[in-house]
Specification:
The chain has 441 residues and is an alpha+beta fold.
Length: 441
């Protein structure tokens, strides 16, 4: 590049001021490269990683952690300084090129800006920062901190952000880390593939992410499955019911199941029996019940149950009626999977047969069944469960063995108890034949 300038100078010449401008351009290009590297290093550094670097006592890690903790404030200053260096350097190159080459200088300046400023000052530093993110972040941290501490630059940046928010109303640059649930899940899947974490750990991570979006309605024991006794029942009789059911807590209702009065604890029943109160009504040892709406998030409910030392809550619907009940064990099973003890009878909600058919509990949610089906899922709609899908398609209570076709599947109500569907057999529908679609609206 210098030789081209010398040749061109024969026609137009470069003055002393132009040489000074070239020196400024070189300094600005170096600054641009450093700021571009800094931008990439900061955005790719998470707070968790910065904390681990501090624990490893890496040089510059405490400064880096302070920067990462306020990325939303530091990053705009870096970006503004980067754009300022880039624009000023490009402008000065254009001025010098025009002095040296006349009208042709615009073309030469443009080529210079694309090749040198973009490739050398931006692309190359950012690529290096991506490949050496930790080293880059640790090296730029002290300089970036000093740059952010320069008050005039910070004030100008904040002023420009306010102007941009007036033109395009918004919240400005948001605080990091720049991640999402989907990204965390993808990272967990990748970690399993690379043998960084175990499959069980991946499952736990997925459960924790899903836990925040799960509501009580998805976890509760529905009303028809509840074991409850009326308030006039005798203590001695309820002990037999509790032993047969294998539960430690039983709801008590008054006028009906929608009128839950409280909870019975088996330990209170046994204590009362030993005190010769077997013929007394259960209301004598009744404890208050906790009531929660079916739309409540289970993460919030778990915190409340821990604080109130409650292991069971009655779930109510939007009309105030009893929708079901939920226990602390039900909530924990959403995180760690099914919890069984020596008194539980193992239930298999999903069974895959040799012919490829899937037999599922009708209470399983559509999402759970679709995970088993893979790329050919059941349709979603105003129903939550597989049983609800069959009801929606048929419009009536099915008889045992009645089947419906929805999409590419045939659903057979294999077990029907009263008005409730127990088990459903799911098979791939044949290509020919009529179909009753399941509510794809």
């Amino acid at each position: 590049m210098p030789s081209a300038v010398v040749v061109a100078s024969a026609g137009h010449g470069l003055g002393g001021s132009d040489v000074a401008l070239l020196v400024v351009v070189v300094v600005l290009i170096v600054a641009t490269g450093f700021l571009a590297l800094s931008e990439t290093a900061i955005t790719r550094m998470s707070r968790i990683k910065a904390v681990s670097l501090v624990e490893e006592e890496r040089r510059g890690a405490p400064t880096l952690l302070r920067i990462v903790e306020r990325t939303e404030r530091v990053l705009p200053v870096v970006l503004f300084a980067l754009e300022m260096c880039t624009l000023v350097a490009a402008t000065l190159v254009g001025v010098v090129a025009e002095h040296a080459f006349g009208g042709l200088g615009v073309v030469i300046a443009t080529m210079f800006e694309v090749v040198v400023i973009f490739v050398v000052a931006e692309l190359a530093p950012k690529t290096w920062a991506v490949q050496h993110s930790e080293r880059a972040a640790l090296r730029v941290a002290p300089v970036i901190r000093a740059l952010y501490a320069f008050a005039p630059l910070r004030w100008v940046t904040q002023g420009l952000i306010r102007i941009s928010n007036v033109i395009l109303p918004g919240k400005g640059i948001q605080a990091g880390p720049y991640t999402s649930d989907e990204l965390i899940l993808a990272m967990a899947d990748t970690a399993v593939d690379e043998d960084v974490i175990e499959h069980q750990e991946r499952t736990l991570i997925h459960s924790i992410i899903d836990f925040g979006d799960t509501v009580v309605r998805d976890v509760m024991v529905p009303r028809p499955d509840m074991v409850a006794v009326e308030s006039r029942a005798l203590i001695g009789d309820v002990i037999d019911i509790a032993i047969a059911a294998g539960f430690s807590r039983i709801p008590v209702y008054g006028q009906g199941i929608d009128d839950v009065l409280g909870l019975l604890y088996v330990k209170d029943l046994l204590r009362a029996e030993r005190e010769d109160k077997s013929t007394s009504e259960v209301t004598a040892i009744l404890r208050p019940a906790q009531f929660v709406p079916e739309s409540k998030r289970v993460s919030e409910l778990m915190t409340e149950m821990q604080a109130n030392k409650q292991h069971m809550a009655i779930v109510v619907d939007e009309y105030g009626g009893t929708a079901g009940l939920i226990t602390l064990e039900d909530v924990l099973e959403e995180l760690v999977g099914e919890i069984t003890d020596e008194y539980d009878t193992e239930r298999r909600d999903v069974e895959r047969l040799d012919d490829g058919a899937l037999v599922v509990n009708a209470r399983m949610t559509i999402d759970e069944v679709n995970e088993e089906l893979g790329e050919d899922p059941l349709p979603e709609g105003d129903w939550d469960t597989v049983g609800g899908l069959i009801y929606a398609v048929l419009g009536h209570v099915p008889t045992e063995g009645e089947q419906v076709r929805t999409g590419h599947h045939v659903l057979v109500a294999e077990r029907v108890q009263g008005r409730r569907i127990g088990r459903v057999r799911i098979t791939v529908a044949p290509e020919s034949g009529s179909s009753a679609e399941g509510g794809d609206e």
